[in-house]
Design a protein that fits this description.
It is built from four helices and five strands. By secondary structure, it is an alpha+beta fold. Strands 1-2-3-4-5 form a five-stranded antiparallel β-sheet. Strand 3 and strand 4 form a beta hairpin.
Length: 136
């Protein structure tokens, strides 16, 4: 996996999956999507900036808000998904495996291992951006 692709995949995933439901933190579940849009391009970036979460995201947010939860991400590894083509000069797929930690204001944190598949594209300026979330 080329380093610039890995770095873009890590940055996107961290922004996309991190939430802060503590006082003074995020205003909604969708704040994470808006942060992730900075690491995306094309239709995906637009969707992340404008989309609102459905009822499942809203319910999750209410639960986190009630318990003042901070959700943090630690990327464990970035690899090529099974069956994906090798990275080319201007496109790549990546599978990001990460540890998600939910830390409430009171009580013990909980951890889970999660993963997301990403499609990335190299822009004319040489930077890499996420342009798709296959299987999401």
């Amino acid at each position: 996996m080329p380093t610039p692709v890995e770095e873009a995949a890590r940055a996107f995933t961290t922004a996309w999956a991190s939430h802060d439901a503590r006082p003074g933190g995020d205003e909604s579940f969708d704040d994470a999507s808006r942060r992730a849009a900075a690491f995306a391009d094309g239709d995906l970036a637009e969707d992340l900036r404008t989309h609102t979460s459905g009822s499942a995201g809203g319910q999750q947010w209410l639960s986190w808000k009630d318990r003042q939860v901070q959700v943090t991400v630690a990327v464990l590894r970035v690899s090529l998904p099974d069956g994906a083509p090798a990275p080319s000069e201007d496109s790549s797929f990546a599978r990001v495996i990460y540890k998600l930690t939910e830390s409430p204001a009171k009580g013990a944190p909980t951890e889970s291992e999660e993963q997301v598949a990403l499609k990335l594209r190299r822009l004319p300026d040489g930077s890499w951006r996420v342009v798709g979330l296959p299987y999401v």
